[in-house]
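Phospholipase/carboxylesterase/thioesterase domain-containing protein (Nonlabens tegetincola), 215 aa
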Amino acid sequence: MVKTVLYNHTNSYDTLNELTDTTKCIWICFHGLGYLSKYFKKYFINFPKDDHYFIIPQAPSKYYQGSDFKHVGASWLTRENTMQEMDNVLNYLDKVITQENIKGDPRIVLMGYSQGVSIATRFMSQYFYNVKALIIQSGSLPQELNENDGQHFETFCDRIIHISGTKDEYVNDKVIEREKERIDTLFGTKCEKHRPDIKHVVHVELLQTIAKSLT
């Protein structure tokens, strides 16, 4: 018999720069598998500090990487009890945006990289306020999202931007075809597609270009 229990859990998150009345974009950036938020935020250090405020949530499940147990990474979800774990993540994210006092702020930009794509899109599907942009790079879209979610994205996302590297080592023809179908279903013609010649890495330069267009 499997039982469940409800309990309090404390988790951290990182921020970068200062949120002011003149801040133009409030980024919520979801890292990929194996990252920690304190390292992931380094990708955004060189963005204009007066224009951009970054919130980097921390995936809850930390683990040691490699056989030497030296480096620590983290995971958002696995295939085990995915929806239950996602509910936990959504509760955590709600507390983050409440503490930052940004719920409903139209300056929000959601960005997901790799495994963070599944978190950014699932979060957006449950978020009923307008956001400036949804940016997703090098990750798979959740299978449970459907046409109704697509209408939600179209209604509440001012811009939808998809980035996928042509040299991504985790992508093959089957994945490309699957994700193309998912993108068309969820985002349609509203999706801005970028296909840079990069491997499975955060494309900082392209993100900086996009950031400039958002301000």
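The helical segments are 37-40, 82-99, 116-125, 147-156, 173-186, 204-214. The mean pLDDT is 95. ok done for today
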